[in-house]
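Changelog-adjacent note: as of this version, every example in the card shows the full chain rather than a window. The one below runs 186 residues end to end.
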Amino acid sequence: MELTDLAFVTKARSGDADAFRALVERHSRPLFRLAFRMTGNQQDAEDAVQESFLRAWRQLGRFDERASFGTWLYRIAPNCSLDVMRSRKRRSNLSEVEDPVLALPSGDPTPERVAMSGEVRERVAEAMDELSASERTAFVLRHFEGLRMEDVGRVLGCQPGAAKHSVFRAVQKLRRALEPLVSGAR
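Full-length structure tokens:
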């Protein structure tokens, strides 16, 4: 019989490091996917996931057992991802954010398509950087992670209507930022 997250949390609270390791193994892949989509960079995503689990370990005593452990982690990970992004910006002003998730698909790309793909990737990365923390988090959780608005609201600590509004604002900002590319391609 496979143990639930709650059973592992209970064991981890009593000092069982293997139980917490099981939680890490169970949740690291979805957390990495979220962090990568937030940061746009593999190294930063790995740092954010590591920091997320470190914070979770330190705050395990504060975890409310009525909540889902996965949702609780999804509240921690976006904040860690944003912290990593802020520290990266302080360390250096990188002009290009690597984000293969948002690249245009290509079979045998023409030089024009390669140039357009790079421009789109750059424009999307710049637009994502312009989103507020709540807009970026809500957008990534909804459109990349596929969470329901109720779950996005839970992660953000707000009502589903407020989460929906954050997603809407993010979409509007991204649309405005990408409009010159779309109208120029016609």
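Structural remarks: The mean pLDDT is 84.
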